[in-house]
Amino acid sequence: MSYSPRILWVEDEPAARRLILGLGSDPAGAARMAGKMVRRLVHLKDVPCRSANILKQEMLALGGDAAVARGTVGCSIPATDVILIGSLKKLRQLCLRLVHQPFGLPALATDLTRLLSSLDAPPAVLLGRSCRLQLDRPRIMGVLNVTPDSFSDGGRFLSLDSALRQGAALAAEGADLIDIGGESTRPGAAAVSPAEELDRVLPVIEALRREVDIPLSIDTYKSPVARAAVAAGAEFVNDISGLQFDPEMARTVAESGAGLFVMHTRGCPETMQQDTRYPDLVGEVLASLESSLVQARSAGIDEEKLAIDPGIGFAKSLGGNLEILRRLREFHSLGRPVLLGTSRKGFIGKVLGQSAPGERLYGSLATVVFGVERGAQIFRVHDVRPAREAALMAWAVISGEHSEQD
Question: 345 an active-site residue?
Answer without folding.
Answer: yes
